[in-house]
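ingest -> validate -> predict -> emit
validate: passed (alphabet ok, no gaps, 294 aa)
predict: started
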Amino acid sequence: MKIADRYEPTGATSAGGMGEIIECIDLHLQRRVIIKRLQADIEARRLLDEQRALAKVRSKHVVQLYDIVELTDRRKTEKAIVLEFIEGNNLGINSFKPDRDYLKVLWQIAGGLKDIHAAGVIHRDIKPDNIRIDVEGVVKIIDFGLARSTVDAKTRSIIGTPIFMAPELWGDETISFNASIDVYAFGATSLALLTSSPPKELTKQPPQAISLRSLGPHLSGLSPDIAALIHSCLSLDPTNRPTMADAQATLARRLLENEHRALVVMNGQIHHLDRINRKINIERGICRLAGDRI
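emit:
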């Protein structure tokens, strides 16, 4: 049976956490979409939070909100949201090596979070299972069911996934927080992609301070600047954590190192400057031109 006279279920469904997913074909645009509704025992506000958050964010690295529909198959009218279908897989624990592919994924996650925060939204549930990589290698942040506006962000309950939750979220009274909790979760996610055995300091509830030296063995193979970045994201003090814009910039510098190229043509000869050929010497009469290190 079609939904909203437009979306035809394919029969593929899944459920987990707070939501239920129904895969559909959008008959108007002939594309696959997913319709997400809440589990029967979850308060409706969660879906409204997700809807409001996604309506604000426009990013290549964030799942797109397409439509809002009503479902009536559970004996009452329920709101549901229509989302972009992302063909691919969620990131997995200990699924990467400390190589260039890993840095590319971190750069994309950082870019998505930068855009989320710029839109005035806090995701509040960043972890590998809420980040999907599509068949073309594009990273998409999903599941905004816990999202909050950056304006007056507070909570009275401990909610989230331990190890990815910043220490300030573990209080027993009304807790104020800001976008730096996503930065902490980014640091924990960066670590989780490399190991299934995180340092014991981070498994405490709340997590404890960890030194860069103690964290080092888990980040073996990464350059010092990237290891320092991940360590700063895990700071107990929110004010010491970088912004996601700064984190993305640090990752970009590492990814671009020795990747610049130049081409010099003179007297019919072609000269290349790249990571292998760092200098060129060109003579013309009594003049000599030298390409410097890039």
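The longest strand covers residues 7-16.
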